[in-house]
Design brief:
8 helices; alpha/beta
Length: 264
């Protein structure tokens, strides 16, 4: 691991210890709930027996869904604490799982054509460039295999979701470009708010994050041999969310995008 990977691993381990939402394993899923979690585009079909790689996907959430659906699940994540949640979920449901601690930019431990599906939750914004990741995914994914990857909406990523002005809305004043985010300049803090069981909020410093512009992301995906199938926005379905709330922010400025593609 390089310095960035070690830094983000340590930050994620602290977030897991604090109980961040993304580290809470899904222990109450049924088959319908599992499919809803991982097949928002309706493209998966039957995944029974398929070799699925969850890339940067620790936490015991998507791995639980694919395990319930009968896939052969492999998880690669920087954080050993996140991988512990995947083990917990697998033991809870009783499906086999393969866990690897490592960097998404280096999949050399896997042979060519090792997987039928690569499913990547929000994680690619923790590395500075998408090309090394996309190239490695193209190598380990079989031809015709699906690659689902989520990333921060580059048009809204630097909006300050915590400061809503009824007259001016959400503010943004940073250039639209690839590169590392400065959380202090954008949000005034590098801390994530982690809600505790008693309703209190614990502030924990988050990992380093990067913006990947639309042209960089999509063109690099195409350059690496992928054919686009779907692009989806992560938004709210509440019609009248409270102004200034997270759901209101999602209605104004969808924070995440998901791309489904096929390796040519």
């Amino acid at each position: 691991m390089d310095e960035l990977a070690r830094f983000n691993r340590d930050r994620w381990n602290r977030l897991v210890e604090a109980g961040v939402l993304y580290s809470r394993p899904k222990l109450d899923l049924d088959e319908a709930g599992a499919r809803e979690m991982v097949d928002e585009a309706g493209l998966l079909g039957d995944v029974t027996g398929q070799r699925v790689l969850l890339l940067g996907g620790g936490g015991g959430q998507q791995s639980a869904a694919f395990g319930i659906l009968g896939a052969q699940v492999t998880v690669l994540d920087l954080s050993d604490r996140q991988l512990e949640q995947d083990r917990l979920a697998a033991d809870h449901y009783g499906y086999p799982i393969t866990l690897h601690q490592g960097d998404m930019r280096d999949l050399s431990r896997f042979a060519d054509d090792s997987f039928d599906l690569v499913w990547q939750p929000y994680s690619i914004n923790f590395v500075p460039e998408v090309r090394p990741v996309f190239a490695e995914v193209a190598r380990v994914l079989v031809r015709g295999g699906l690659y689902r990857v989520q990333w921060a909406n580059p048009f809204t990523q630097t909006l300050n979701d915590g400061h809503y002005d009824p007259e001016r809305g959400y503010s943004m004043n940073t250039p639209y470009e690839d590169g590392e985010l400065d959380p202090m300049a954008i949000w005034g803090t590098d801390a994530w708010d982690v809600e505790q069981p008693d309703g209190s909020v614990r502030k924990v410093s988050g990992p380093r994050e990067f913006r990947h512009t639309m042209s960089t992301f999509i063109n690099t995906l195409i350059d690496c041999g992928f054919i686009l199938r779907r692009i989806l926005e992560h938004r709210t379905w509440e019609e009248n969310p409270e102004p200034g709330s997270w759901e209101h922010y999602k209605r104004i400025a969808p924070p995440y995008l998901a791309v489904w593609s096929v390796r040519a």
